[in-house]
Amino acid sequence: MSNPVESRLAELGISLPVAAAPAANYVPYSQTGNLLLTSGQLPLVGGKLVHTGLLGADLDVAQGQACAQACAVNILAQAKAALGDLEKIVRVIKITVFVASTPGFTEQHLVANGASDLLVAALGDIGRHARSAVGTAALPLNAPVEIEAIIEVR
C-alpha cells in the first residue's frame, strides 16, 4: 500500500468502509477553505450499530470505547470520500464526542478515548486534537456515541 495512513490502518486490522450516505437532509461533510467538517458519525460497521443503548445502564466504558473507535473510522472514511486521499490531512483540529448516558455516568471522557486513540494510531501526531466529550440523554437510532470532526486539509 502506498498510502501511509491506510497502511497504518491495515496494521491495526482496519479497512475503511465506503463513507455512509446521509440519512436525512444534510451533507456528510462540508469543506470551507482548508477546513473539512464532518457531520456526526455513528458507530456503524457493515451498516449496523456496533452497540445500542446508554452508557452507565446498557453498556460499559469498554463497549463505549469500541463505539467511539467505530465512529473515528467512519470519520476517516468521510475524509477519504471528501479528499480522495487521507494524505491530504494536515491535522485533526477537534472532535466532539456525544455519549448517550445515564445522568450518573461521568466517564464520557474515557469513552472518547476510543476515538482519540484510534486517530493518533492511524495518523500519528497529526491525529492529536482538541476534544469535547458531552453526555446526552439520547442519540439517533439509540446509538451510544456520535462524533463530529474538524480537520485541516491541504
Automatic annotation (TrEMBL):
<feature type="domain" description="Endoribonuclease L-PSP/chorismate mutase-like">
    <location>
        <begin position="6"/>
        <end position="143"/>
    </location>
</feature>
<dbReference type="Pfam" id="PF14588">
    <property type="entry name" value="YjgF_endoribonc"/>
</dbReference>
<dbReference type="InterPro" id="IPR013813">
    <property type="entry name" value="Endoribo_LPSP/chorism_mut-like"/>
</dbReference>
<protein>
    <submittedName>
        <fullName>Enamine deaminase RidA (YjgF/YER057c/UK114 family)</fullName>
    </submittedName>
</protein>
<dbReference type="InterPro" id="IPR035959">
    <property type="entry name" value="RutC-like_sf"/>
</dbReference>
